[in-house]
Design a protein that fits this description.
21-stranded mixed sheet; 482 residues; 27% helix; alpha+beta
């Protein structure tokens, strides 16, 4: 028994010794200078790391790195000058306030990858999208040509030839192997558990060279929590909770804010199809657009306000659609996201000072191409509706020279555009969201052309019989000499 006791004691002593050695080595090896050297040897960047925090109690489970900067590569990085000898920090396209990683190594003994925490805190990213589809960050992740003042060995003719030979061998093996199906989580024998993975307090600036737009994503919090995936038991272990909060501002080519969306989203995601283990192509989100979100200068609204011929002919004045519209209260709705396509699963109504906007179920936007097809209804402000209808009445009086009842004639023209004493304009917008095609969802009455000014031509033509059947129109025709 004593020998067994001595053996167990020796085992735990060895484990303790390993922990102490790991602590000493980690503290001496994993330094800011070490990390900078590793990044600049593999990435085409000038890197900077402020501090690395490790202590005895988390050396085998976690590490905290502060002040990471990735900037375009320069001579300082090419020469491999030690971090402590550098005189200034670079101005980076990517900056991370802190990276906090905590991993459970003991969980690996039970074939489980358990990440207690992987969080990027206060990231600052400046991204420019070029007209050809490229961006300013792509070059940062290429293999550097010069490392430590010399040509990178990884780019030598011998290294490149060896890499090509390996790729050719892999391609040959892949061609001769039986055809494999798509990726399935069921093929991975290790369960995955994660407590918190995400981004906190992030800011992203996206510049679109082609359109001249700028998109600012501020106060970004993206958190994936309670990640529980086990390919052998997807019925019970197939869950990710998602929370996404951000203020998204769109600035137009004219440098003015075109829209701001204050967003809060959450939902439970089922990442894999239970039966097959394939990646689930659809994700459902509960979205809340917060009060004070706004939109201004939306091309579809501009078309409705003054460019649709039918509305112009009817005399409708909808100038308020061109003004800034702020959301008067929080609005929650559900959407589905799949392969860049966002589809509305219900019919939310967004109340603003000038109008209430309702989006029809099934409307969608493809974020990767800006293509969209949306059916919407615009319920105009009551006071403004009265003004607009009064302008229609005035146009009727002018066209009919005061004959007939303007209200009756107006109801024949735009009656199907009035709801609860307010103008209601159903419409469809589709195509490129920046330059959309807009169609009315209802027809305008047969007196449209009459009010538009072509009185005699219409009455003598095919619309004559239809006009005579309209109450009040007969007197108007007599007054005009027909």
């Amino acid at each position: 028994m004593k020998k067994i006791g001595y053996g167990i004691g020796a085992f735990f002593a060895a484990i303790l010794l390993i922990i102490i050695i790991a602590f000493v080595l980690a503290g001496s090896i994993v330094t800011p200078s070490f990390l900078v050297k590793q990044m600049e040897s593999s990435l085409n960047v000038r890197a900077h790391v402020e501090t690395v925090n490790i202590n005895l109690f988390n050396v085998l489970s976690g590490i905290e790195i502060e002040g990471i900067i990735l900037a375009p590569r320069d001579e300082v990085a090419n020469k491999g000058i030690p971090l402590e000898e550098r005189k200034s920090k670079p101005k980076g396209a990517i900056q991370l306030g802190k990276v906090d990683v905590k991993i459970s190594f003991l969980a690996l003994l039970s074939k489980t990858i358990k990440v207690n925490q992987l969080v990027l805190k206060q990231p600052e990213i400046s991204l420019t999208m070029y007209e050809d589809g490229g961006n300013n960050l792509t070059s940062l992740f290429k293999t550097p040509k010069i490392v430590n003042g010399e040509k990178n060995p990884a780019l030598s003719p011998e290294a490149i030839a060896e890499k090509k030979a390996e790729e050719a061998e892999e391609a040959k093996e892949k061609a001769s192997a039986p055809a494999s199906g798509p990726f399935s989580i069921k093929d991975i024998p290790i369960a995955i558990k994660m407590g918190l993975v995400g981004i906190q307090e992030g800011n992203i600036q996206l510049n679109m060279r082609k359109t001249g737009q700028q998109i600012l994503v501020q106060k970004l919090d993206l958190e994936l929590t309670d990640i529980d995936i086990d390919g052998s038991d997807l019925n019970s272990h197939n869950n990710i909770n998602v929370n996404f909060d951000a203020d998204v501002t769109i600035i137009g080519r004219n440098k003015k804010e075109a829209a701001k969306f204050l967003l809060e989203t959450d939902g439970k995601v089922t990442p894999f199809v239970v039966k097959t283990g394939l990646v689930n192509p659809k994700v459902l989100y509960q979205v809340t657009m917060k009060e004070d979100s706004f939109i201004s200068g939306f091309a579809a609204f501009d078309a409705i306000a003054g460019e649709l011929p039918a509305l112009n002919q009817a005399g409708l004045k909808l100038d308020k659609l061109k003004e800034k519209a702020e959301l008067k209260k929080d609005v929650s709705f559900q959407v589905e996201y799949s392969n860049g396509k966002i589809t509305f699963l219900d019919e939310p109504t967004f109340p603003t000072k000038n109008y209430d906007l309702q989006i029809t179920k099934g409307s969608y936007i493809v974020t990767t191409t800006n293509y969209h097809e949306m059916k919407m209804g615009m319920l105009y402000d009551e006071a403004e509706s009265k003004k607009s209808l009064a302008s229609v009445d005035e146009k009727i009086k002018q066209a009919t020279k005061g004959q007939g009842d303007p209200k009756e004639l107006r109801n024949k023209i735009v009656g199907n555009l009035v709801k609860d004493e307010r103008l209601f304009i159903p419409f469809r917008t589709y195509g490129d969201i920046r330059n959309p095609k807009v169609e009315l969802g209802v027809g305008i009455g047969t007196l449209t052309d009459l009010i538009g000014g072509a009185v005699k031509e219409v009455i003598k033509g095919k619309a004559g019989d239809a006009l005579k059947k309209i109450p009040g129109a007969g007197n108007a025709l007599k007054g005009l000499g027909f």
